[in-house]
User: Fold this.
Amino acid sequence: MIHFTLETVVYAGAIGLVAIGALGLVLCNHLFRMLLALGIAESGANLLLILTGFRPDATAPIIGYGPAGASMVDPLPQVLVLTAIVIGVGVQAMAVSMLVRVYRAYGTLEMSELRRRMELDISAAAGIRAPSSAQSPAGERPLPPVPAYRPASARVQPRES
Amino acid sequence: MRNVASLLFTGGLAFLLLALGAQLAFGDPVMRVGAEYLRVAGPELGAANLVTAILAGYRGFDTLGELSILFAAATAAGLVLGHRRADAPRDPPGGLILTAGADLLFPLLLVVGIYIVVHGHLTPGGGFQGGVVLAAAFFVAMLADPSRSLSHALIAWIEGFAGAAFILIGIWALVEDGHFLAPMLGTGVMGQILSAGTLPLLSVAIGLKVGSELAGLMAHLSDTEARDQ
Amino acid sequence: MNQILLPVVLPLLAAFLMQPLAQVSRLAARALGPLVLVLSALITARIWLGFGEAPFTVAIGGFAPPLGIVFYADHLALLFALTVPLFTLLFWPGLGDQDSDPGHCARRDALVLLLVAAATGLALSGDLFNIYIFYELAAVASFGLASLTGTPRALVATLRYLLISAFGSVLSLVGISFLYMATGTLNLAQLAQLAPQTLQGPLGLASFALMLIGFGVKAELFPLNTWVPDVYATAPARVAALLAGLVSKLAVLVVVRLLVLVFQQPEASQLLLSLGVLGVLTGELAAWRARDFARMIAFSSIGQLGIVFIAFSIDGDTGLLAGIAVALHHLIVKSALFGLAARWNGSLEALTGAARRSPLAAGLFVLFALSLIGVPPLPGFWAKILVLVGLAQGGSTLQLFALVSVLLVTAVEASYLFRVAVRLYGQSDSPPAPPARWDLGAATLLGAALIGVTLATAPVADHLRNVARQAGNAALYVDTVFPKTVAQKD
Assistant:
């Protein structure tokens, strides 16, 4: 049976956060939500890293902080997490500024739409036709909608029998 | 269909990682280098806060790399966002609560930030934490009154010279002691503000750099117009 | 010997001071970058010339490992530490550009210098988290450089790259936590000592897989390479040359160090082999279908890096030698091709008749194409033969499958590269513009280097054999970082 200690709960929580972030990245279509999911995943990874230094009944690694003779937690993971948080902040800030510019240029933040527009722009810049899809088999613009099919017999007078 | 597949895949991955983690003894770490740090970091560097002792002492080179990452992010954001047009309209100022709160909070946050930076080697805190609080002071001021923006030139000077100060302290140690970023200036008496050698100086450099960088990032973002006119 | 730190520290210092300097004097700011790179190259060259046979370490800050961070310099590390500033000088994005905004130029130069510092640090570092930090620095700097043109398509491509890369970093952090939990240290040499006891079994394999996903994004590992064609098509060509040529090799170097020192189990090599085969097949087939020049060479880059991974998955010194040979060859050829792509960035049809306007560029393209395909006596042939021989000697089913894939892919490469070459020498009324002076110069220099290596194959091969033997010697690594005269602390 699983022994439910604090450490197991926190470990499950950390892995869960990473999994939620991964799901968010894959399933969300909106760019900002993908960024938020990335932030959640980063929190999960940082939590896991801090957990590796945890010792129950130990105090912070500051001399003179806890009662004399108490053991201290491992200080190295705390340094690593400090670094990882700052890296995460930097990357997210940069991503947000790129997001603002993309919104100004394309007017949308839906990833599928953005990829389609990027594909069109790259192809246009290179002077080739964009890859075709079902909606625009000619590759340039969607075809006009086809009028509904009406069988010829519907317009013939019904015969009196 | 794609949702179900992703859900299954991520669920399976999470289950695998959980099963792996069951083998690891969380709560009872190996403490191979950890115990060594706890034993020698205090006497060797004279800092009471062992996390800062590792951050600015033993692994000071990692901290230099981290400062560079933040600098790269701020520079890239500045590159992407570009300049604002001179006649572009600004966001309206915040309401009464925000402006009154900003007037109260700005000096308080500055004092708290400087306290955390300067006491980095004694109490929980340090350059990064204090720098973020310093930047938050400027965030609040900028949100309350967007027409009052920071001078990008000044921010570039502060962050440039704070970063250069960090490296120059390291090069001074290289010249004097033969090792880059070796702790200099002795250790002093633990628990005093002027102890732990160059560690408080490095904390101040880190705090100034982080604070000015984040404030500059916010200034760039608030300068950017929300839509093309 | 402590000066080996300067090639990492000086570019950082110059990057920090670049923007204030640009406000004072534009000329000084434009000259600072190349000046610092020349200085770094000179320092590294001096250390390399004075380098005997034994690798040396530098304990940063005077703190002995494993408490402090250590820099480890052997032949392989110094080779890459020397290549980084030289290549960046060759493909300096500020050369010959007429950008008038000093702030923009200063920021761009600062980002390139940060990339240089990160790349040099990746080559030399001996501590796992230090490697992670330099990898992140290279990533953030490359995000900034990839979006340099500022066009919306470049921004979207960079955002996709950012999301994939950042998620990879999250997974590699999880891997690092597992590793730290199992061993209690982050120093590569100490990890090498502890690996046989603690990292066998599923935990070791899982941490390797997680870190491979993290560091594999830059190394264009399958399936994390979906960002590659779009970013290389929208970034400025010189930036693409630096990213595809230089930075990807350093990411591969990190994976190799992990493989040699820490994760020596056969499952790790098999994972690398399978991902390499998948990368080769998908990359080269996509290159065959590509319709514009930039994306064609981007896909080809994925394929070649797949071959590099296949090579490194072969056991022993033969695998290392093959991998290093293919990697160096790719570094020279791919950077030069991206240099040529600066002006030839249209569709493949638009390239018709380019040989008339610039015969030198067309000739260089044919030279590089022949070397990529592997036509003797060019270096590409020797590199590929080493890979094929190593695979044949291995003999397992997966390795034989890899052998067949590489041969198949060579045929595909020949097909699409010759298609382009024939077009270059065709007739056209509107041939494309010739490559710019600097780009052509860089490509010519690299072409000359390729011919030089062809003429001096034997000494180059001997030196590379030496490099590979030293890099594969895990015991030597551990003994250099922890000399046996000092009592081992456990």
Q: What stands out?
A: The interface with chain C takes residues 18, 21-22, 25, 31, 34-35, 38, 41-42, 44-46, 48-49, 51-52, 76-77, 80, 83-84, 87-88, 90-91, 94-95, 98-99, 101-102, 105-106, 114-115, 117-118, 121-123, 125-128 of chain A (CB under 8 Å). The radius of gyration of chain A is 29 Å. The mean pLDDT of chain A is 84. Residues 6-59+73-128 of chain A form a domain with the Helix Hairpins fold (CATH 1.10.287.3510).
